[in-house]
Design brief:
The chain is mainly β. 5% of the residues lie in helices and 57% in strands.
Length: 428
């Protein structure tokens, strides 16, 4: 927790505890393409459809039908619960319903032999939304000061919402050297937009002296960013085993723009420990700020093993390197506490409005089993991890995101192949 967050929590009488402050962008939140999504992403070794433009561009060289394209949507019903998020016995919960377009992709052969292939795709790399709110009303010895010697009535409210959307568009090229080895490279343009709003209100009224103390904290930011990155891959077909290896480069920032704002209003609260109540307003908003998002180097490897004529077992693992703390948006340092001279040296607008990000290294794994019941009907069962990067930022400012959760996905579904198309249905 940063110093600004500690100060705000203290001013709010620490009865509306902060939830979790880290990154919302778990790296394996979404999977892409019909079969690949059902396989939980365990396809780096054996992908043979146009979702290879993302999972392993080297495998594009093994696709033998240039009319094949993949289009997949997900109906997402999401319920999130933060136990005791607003105090003992008071959970924070969020319910959202959305349709997520996961992937649209296709390929074109560049020569008659099909050894040189151009692939393209647009995918929803991440999509996340959380809306929480709670109110608390208690009686107790809250402030325990000379102005508030006995019990007080306390009323507090908190509300927060965050929304994240990130889309990748890519064009990949693959060359098949022979019947066993193919390699390729995809260039991606990533477009990300993110917003966050938080409101915290606290009211204390003494039951003895009727003295009142209040605090209001409002904080929000929104931005967009465009960046460039590449994914290279090699695919090896040693029937009945297929092997894949990919490397995704760190991103290169192109441009971005955003706004950060905050307001902290305090009435009759001793925040500097001198025994006297303080009253002040701290407020600033800065727009047209440069906004930067970074994504790490990652290395993935996968294996696809046809253990029988009907059954395939697949595994994929991907390691993401750490990201050191950096500024997503850096406002100017301005005096913004009024009246001047109150709470001197507590913080300035740059401390209050800077948005920061960081990430620890993460290793995710996916396992899948695909079984052919008939020539046209297949069933798929998969499991994948989606660990939070979980980095803490010991600086002043706003952390990017409000959740820090490890998520485990189980997927069950199947595919039905017809003469010129394939239908895939599944539940995650």
């Amino acid at each position: 927790m940063t110093r600004i967050q500690r100060t705000a929590a203290m001013i709010a009488m620490v009865l509306l505890p902060c939830t979790t402050l880290a990154q919302d962008h778990n790296y394996w939140n979404n999977q892409f393409g019909s079969r690949s999504a059902l396989m939980g992403g365990a396809v780096v070794g054996g992908v043979r459809d146009t979702s290879a433009v993302f999972y392993n561009p080297g495998a594009l060289g093994f696709i033998d039908n240039q009319s094949l394209s993949v289009s997949a949507n997900a109906l997402r019903v999401e319920r999130s619960v933060i136990e005791n998020g607003a105090g003992d016995g008071r959970d924070l919960d969020s319910d959202t319903l959305s349709v997520v377009p996961l992937l649209i992709s296709g390929i074109t052969f560049l020569n008659d032999s099909g050894s040189d292939v151009l692939g393209y795709g647009i995918l929803t790399r991440n999509s996340y939304q959380l809306e929480i709110s709670e109110r608390r009303d208690v009686v107790g010895n809250i402030l325990n000061s000379g102005t508030f010697p006995g019990e007080e009535n306390y009323i507090g409210q908190i509300s927060a919402d965050t929304k994240l959307d990130e889309y990748w568009g890519g064009v990949g090229y693959s060359h098949r050297f022979n019947e066993q080895i193919s390699a390729g490279l995809t260039t991606f343009v990533a477009v990300r937009s993110q917003s966050f709003n938080e409101q915290t209100f606290a009211r204390v009224i003494s039951t003895d002296t009727f003295a009142a103390s209040t605090s209001n904290l409002s904080s929000n930011y929104d931005f967009y960013n465009v960046r460039l990155l590449w994914k290279g891959g090699v695919s090896v077909d040693c029937n009945p085993v297929k092997i894949g290896l990919t490397v995704t480069t760190p991103s290169i920032d192109l441009f971005g723009d955003g706004t950060s704002a905050g307001d902290l209003t305090v009435t009759n609260v001793d925040i500097d420990g001198d025994g006297l109540p303080d009253t002040f307003v701290a407020d600033d908003r800065q727009d047209d700020l440069d906004a930067e998002i970074r994504s790490p180097l990652s290395i993935a490897a996968g294996l696809d093993w046809q253990i029988t004529d009907q059954t395939v077992i697949a595994v994929t693992g991907e390691w993401f390197t750490a990201l050191g703390a950096y500024d997503v948006m850096t406002p100017e340092a301005r005096d913004f506490i009024r009246p001047p001279g109150v709470a001197t040296g507590l913080f300035n607008s740059q401390d209050f409005l800077t948005v920061l990000d960081a990430a620890d290294d993460v290793f995710n794994v996916a396992l899948a089993v695909e079984h052919s019941f008939t020539e046209t009907l297949k069933g798929i069962l998969s499991f994948r991890t989606d660990y939070s990067n979980g980095a803490s930022i010991a600086e002043q400012g706003k952390d990017l995101g409000i959740t820090d959760w490890n998520v485990y996905h189980v997927t069950v579904g199947g595919t039905y192949r017809r003469e010129r198309s394939e239908l895939a249905l599944g539940l995650v």
